[in-house]
Amino acid sequence: MVSSNCDSIKMYIADRLVADLKPDRETFPHLKYPPFVKNIRDEIYKGAWGDMKIEGYIDGKKVITKMLSGRGADRQLLVEPDDRELLGDGIDATRVVLKVTDEYGSIRPLANAAIALSVTGPGEIIGENPFSLFGGVGAVWIKSKQAAGVVKVTARHPVLGSKTVDIAVKRQSPPLI
To answer: Is 123 within 8 Å of 88 (Cβ atoms)?
Structure first.
């Protein structure tokens, strides 16, 4: 089942077209954008195993391509702060999201490894450390200290290695009285 606002989609497995679909308006007449439904189990049994590509079309024009891995393996650890700059006031903070994905950036929902974090510079972790991912994702908060500099946040996955992100901390000017 694919949910989309497209007029039609094409599904490929291992670069072989397995479905050219319209929304299932018969089963879902009450929805403005009904899902696209196709049982591809028979295609997989025919030996068409590999990555899946889904192309979405609106008015006959391809508007999106989504790739899904056929390997079923954790490939990369992503570390993504919401903000790349904080104030050095001792109370500013940002969320840092950690994800385990396949090679196309899709979250691996069964990834639950314990991620160990380390921080250098004028910041500190708010949250558990280490912590286990849930559904392939997790997050911690990084709070600034009362100083300027660069906070380096390093996340270590037991198989996928380490990733480091930098968060700049700007000096906070004293309040004018």
So the answer is: no
